[in-house]
Design brief:
Elements (H helix, E strand, L loop, with lengths): L1 H29 L2 H37 L14 H37 L3 E6 L5 E4 L1 H7 L8 H6 L1 H9 L6 E7 L2 E14 L2 E10 L1 H46 L8 H27 L9 E4 H11 L1 H7 L2 E6 L5 E4 L1 H19 L6 E8 L5 E7 L6 H6 L15 H11 L3 E6 L5 E6 L1
Parallel strand pairs: 7-9
Antiparallel strand pairs: 1-2, 1-5, 3-4, 4-5, 6-8, 9-10, 10-12, 11-12
């Protein structure tokens, strides 16, 4: 509408200018002095009017652009005065200002919302200009973690804590790294990661810090509680009968010494009692040796292993157990010529342990079956699964199955799965255990 009104007004004035110039030329050719003067006067008036008409609109636009230049969107242009096209032009200016103010309010609200979220999270965050070190944004959690007051430039940290500055701002951590920072003669475990991004022509670095000292201490404390609970249970199970049997033998010996005629000492009973004490003591020693085996594996020898050959070796090794238990054991490789980089002997030990567990879980079923499958996950990682059709695992057992010495078997040491988890950790992988909908359990080794 504004454009049409402006074009009409401009066209009308141009038409008047052409008409006045035409009449002026006509009267000049007829040499009519009075008419020439009149036509000249009219032409001048038309030119002045056209000039003012165009100039006024350029001034209005220049005024608007000036306010945009200085980001002054609070100005309101009068919509009730002036010509119709000027009013329409002012309405357009006001609409632009209102839209920009609305966008600014939304951005401000989003920024405040994001700022509040980042201030509430228990993770330290700082973004700064790589070139001059000026801080773009930081939150309270970072200041608390580093035990520093608010600062505007990272040079403040360089002057106060050069070692912290070197580790945080001079060293690049493209992946999450665990580092130890010394602050006020105390060492704090920090998880750090950073990235560089660009805004217009400036480069900024974003650093994320998380104090994992408390988390590690809490997890370590919980692990120790579980470990001590299981160890106490196992040790008490061995010591209680030893103590009871020793007390009984002591009582019999005292009675035999004090009243030899009335209490005959039975050598076979003493021998049997001592033998029981010896066996229990050997069991306790074996328990201690088993505990030591948890710390035995500290490094691995990773080499490319042909999975077909690994499965063939395990199948031959377990053939007597399969025949004895009457269990169907199947091996599947979904990827042709699948090769996984691993410590062949340790992973073989882990798989044998998992397969034996699966056989024992499924042996009482009508058609006991254990299926071992190797392939890739949807994320592209290598994976070996051991699946049985047994009765599954209760939630309580599932939560504690990787705790050292935890076992539901009468003859189990409770170390197998703990050792398996340690071996997978050394492979930078993980072991997972879950119940499947069809019934039974699935153990997954993810590399």
């Amino acid at each position: 509408m504004t454009y049409k009104s402006y074009v009409f007004s401009l066209t009308w004035r141009v038409f008047l200018l052409i008409a006045s110039v035409t009449f002026l030329a006509f009267w000049i050719s007829w040499s009519e002095l009075y008419l020439i003067v009149g036509a000249s006067f009219v032409t001048i008036l038309v030119i002045i009017n056209l000039y003012k008409f165009v100039l006024k609109r350029f001034i209005e636009m220049d005024d608007f652009f000036e306010s945009v230049k200085y980001r002054d969107f609070s100005r309101w242009f009068v919509e009730t005065k002036g010509s119709q096209d000027i009013r329409e032009l002012h309405k357009g200016f006001n609409l632009v200002n209102s839209t920009i103010k609305s966008i600014n309010r939304e951005r401000q609200a989003q920024f405040v919302y994001l700022q509040k979220i980042l201030e509430m999270v228990d993770v330290g965050i700082i973004a700064y200009n790589v070139e001059d070190g000026s801080v773009l944004w930081t939150n309270d959690s970072l200041l608390q973690t580093l035990d520093l007051p608010s600062f505007k430039n990272i040079s403040f940290i360089e002057s106060r804590r050069p070692e912290v500055y070197q580790e945080l701002f001079e060293t690049y951590h493209t992946q999450a790294d665990s580092i130890t920072l010394k602050m006020r003669q105390e060492e704090t475990k920090i998880l750090i990661s950073d990235t560089i991004f660009e805004i217009e022509e400036s480069s900024f670095k974003l650093i994320v810090l998380q104090n994992i000292e408390e988390t590690l201490n809490k997890n370590e404390s919980e692990a120790w509680k579980k470990l001590l609970s299981v160890m106490t249970h196992e040790i008490m199970n061995s010591i209680a009968p030893i103590s009871s049997l020793a007390e009984t033998l002591e009582t019999n010996l005292k009675s035999s010494i004090e009243q030899p005629q009335e209490n005959n000492l039975d050598s076979e009973d003493i021998l049997a009692g001592i033998s029981s004490i010896r066996k229990r003591s050997e069991g306790l020693m074996q328990f201690a040796k088993t505990y030591r085996s948890l710390n035995k594996v500290t490094q691995i020898n990773r080499l490319p292993v042909q999975i077909d050959e690994l499965f063939e070796s395990i199948e031959q090794l377990l053939q007597p157990t399969i025949l004895e238990k009457n269990v169907t054991l199947e091996f599947k490789v979904t990827e042709p010529n699948l090769i996984i980089k691993m410590d062949n002997y340790l992973i073989e030990q882990v798989l044998i342990n998992l397969i034996i567990n699966a056989i024992e879980a499924a042996e009482e079923k009508e058609n006991p079956t254990v299926i071992v499958t190797a392939g890739k996950t949807f994320k592209g990682n290598f994976q070996i699964t051991v699946q049985d059709n047994g009765t599954g695992i209760t939630q309580e057992v599932l939560e504690n199955v990787f705790v050292p010495f935890f076992s539901t078997k009468k003859r189990g040491s409770g170390v197998g799965l703990s050792l398996s988890k340690q071996i997978m950790n050394l492979h930078q992988g993980k072991i997972q255990l879950r119940n499947i909908n069809e019934g039974g359990t699935e153990a997954r080794l993810i590399f």
